[in-house]
Amino acid sequence: MNTTRWGLIGAGWIATKAIAPAMHAQPNAIVQGVASSDLKRAQLLNPITIHNSYEALINDPLVDAVYISLPNHLHCEWSIKALNAGKHVLCEKPFAMNVAEVESMARAARDNDRLLVEAVSAMWHPRMKRVVDYVKAGNIGELVSIDSSFTFPASLEGNSRLSPAMGGGALFDVGIYPLHAITALIGDDANTVIKSCDVKIGPTGIDLTSRWTMSINDLITASGLASFEMPENQSLIIRGEKSSAELIGTQAFTSWHSASSLRLGEQVEEFEAVDPYMLMIENFGKKIHDQVSWVLPLETSLSVQKMLGQLQSSH
């Protein structure tokens, strides 16, 4: 199989703890280069080359694909620059600040014939794939409701997630997971109407907690909760006319290196420990080399960004 030589822009927590280790563990991935404002953190990712600027990294001819884990407000700019430099791009969630930015990114991917994917690692987890396939196959009957949450007590001192201008807040940071699960279950072209959106704004102007309900195609009710100030919990419960399905436990979206289980009607299915980041990187690499793979479609990311915009405007 072909090898993918990766360049990483940004060397924060996600790159250090999840992405670089997954790339080093993936036999067909190489951490070719890193560019970060923090040299020490860049060295921790153990790349072949450390670049002194983002421009130098995206122009490195030895880099095939770029992983972007910068603050949210920089995702669009650097995705487009990397695509225009001829690189494939895997960009940390949330994809961008608004729908117009996602459309610009998608245009750049098309114009340069490069792959552009939003890095929502949860969507590559076998348990998530299984529940989506099970529900879409009609096993629980017509969908009635989807209830989902992602909450944790965040320590955010000096973090870009505290800044509205940088795309901070609970909705963008963790609300994205329930919205991606909802979109995977209902499809990319569903008609969503926000029924309620209750927000608690923190001292810096970001939403510390967002709670919402939406109507989908006038048939399905979806509720979501995203919070930086509540006890740690992640849930996904899907109800249909005939039956229901639920991701068991408190790690619906971040089950990582640990076993997990799924209730489908009366049955429980067990899943062995996996690294969804590694599965994401493996599938991305296969996709750019025209091998059998699955990546999160741009249409899905655009649908989720539209929902984010609807929720923001209904605050």
TrEMBL record:
UniProt cross-references to InterPro entries, sorted A to Z: Gfo/Idh/MocA-like_OxRdtase_N (IPR000683), Gfo/Idh/MocA_domain (IPR050984), GFO_IDH_MocA-like_dom (IPR055170), NAD(P)-bd_dom_sf (IPR036291)
Keywords: Oxidoreductase
Gene Ontology molecular function: nucleotide binding; oxidoreductase activity
Domain Gfo/Idh/MocA-like oxidoreductase N-terminal residue range list: 5-116
A Pfam family annotated for this UniProt entry: GFO_IDH_MocA_C3
Family to which this protein belongs: Belongs to the Gfo/Idh/MocA family.
Protein name as catalogued: Dehydrogenase
Organism placement in taxonomy: Bacteria, Bacillati, Actinomycetota, Actinomycetes, Candidatus Nanopelagicales
